[in-house]
Design a protein that fits this description.
By secondary structure, the chain is of the alpha+beta class. The chain is built from eleven helices and seven strands. The radius of gyration is 34 Å and the shape is rod-shaped. It catalyses: Mg(2+)(in) = Mg(2+)(out). Belongs to the CorA metal ion transporter (MIT) (TC 1.A.35) family. One of its GO terms (molecular function) is magnesium ion transmembrane transporter activity.
Length: 329
């Protein structure tokens, strides 16, 4: 699907579908979502440039993602999307800064793109020039990532309180509830780690793009928009630091959860060990009186059987009392 944005008489004109070649040349922003071969061909003919294919956009080497052909800059990075739906992932998006037009090629819709498209319809000043469109779009992406990281931090705080509340809870609490709480915490930590790692990937891509554009700003960016590069770069750095903090916190919380689980497992193993040690003397007594020797005087005693049972009970209770006195139980 192709969507073009043009500023006419101080208003934003948005048009979906395949426009004419003249309309394409007048457009400030051409947004290609899952473009068809016909749409790619029309853009290439109107702007005299080659749109990268989806396979080319997936390449990870820097020379394939950031390069210049003639006067056009080709900038590709991975962007986080789908956090609200829970089906989050990363998608490669290419920005082609070609003179008076910005072409974006994408195969998914991050929320920042939808939000920015709504903004430009209300504020035409955001898309007066192609470089302004790109930089303001980067600002929207950074704002969106900040919201994602804030919500991720809040989720991790809730998981942290849940974990330590569970750890401080009574040992007699229901085992199923305790296990469910720790399982939920582990799932939350995993989601936090996944989101922050993908957000870091987006921030890394933006850093590379802004560095590349900064090196070409004398020819690619208008004078009035150059300060935007510094502003966006400063915001990106702050988010990188915050994402690193969240990653460290997630690792600490993961270690804490695994430590609590190990302590619980150690307690279970200790209980079984103590039980097996306590049952060893009764087992010995039972083994002795289970022998089939002909001369065993206790077999003829009237109180022999009750006495053997009493000896087994006493020999089991005494080790347990000793362990409790030593604090092993």
């Amino acid at each position: 699907m192709m969507t073009t944005y043009t500023v006419q008489a101080g208003r934003t004109l948005r048009q979906e579908g395949v426009p004419s070649a003249e309309a394409l040349r007048q457009a400030v922003w051409i947004d290609l979502l899952c473009p068809t071969p016909e749409e790619e061909r029309l853009v290439q003919q109107a702007l005299a440039l080659e749109i990268p294919t989806r396979e080319e956009m997936q390449e990870i080497e820097s020379s394939s993602r950031l390069y210049k052909e003639a006067e056009a800059l080709f900038l590709t990075a991975n962007f986080l999307y789908g956090v609200e739906e829970g089906e989050y992932g990363s998608t490669a998006i290419t920005f082609v800064l070609a003179g008076s037009a910005l072409v974006t090629v994408r195969y998914a819709t991050p929320k920042a793109f939808a939000a920015f498209a709504a903004r430009v319809c209300r504020t035409p000043g955001l898309i007066e020039t192609s470089d302004a469109v790109m930089l303001h779009l980067f600002e929207q992406v950074v704002d969106r990532l900040a919201d994602v990281l804030e919500r991720t931090g809040a989720d991790m705080d809730r998981a942290s309180r849940q974990v330590f509340h569970t750890a401080r809870g009574s040992q007699k609490a229901k085992v199923k509830a305790r296990d469910a709480s720790l399982k939920d915490a582990l799932i939350t930590i995993g989601q936090v780690g996944e989101v922050t790692s993908r957000a870091n990937e987006t921030l890394l891509g933006l850093t590379r793009i802004l560095t590349f554009v900064g090196a070409e700003k004398d020819t690619a960016v208008r004078k009035e928009n150059k300060t935007l590069i510094k502003t966006v770069m400063r915001d990106v750095r702050s988010l990188v630091e915050h994402a690193a903090f969240l990653n460290n916190k997630a690792n600490f919380l993961l270690d804490a959860v695994l430590g609590i689980i190990n302590i619980d497992q150690s307690g279970i193993i200790k209980t079984f060990t103590v039980a097996s040690v306590a049952l060893m003397p009764p087992t010995l007594i039972a083994s002795i009186y289970g022998m089939n020797f002909e001369l065993m005087p206790e077999l003829q005693w009237r109180l022999g059987y009750p006495l053997a049972l009493l000896m087994m009970v006493v020999s089991a209770v005494l080790p347990i009392l000793y362990f409790k006195r030593k604090g092993w139980l």
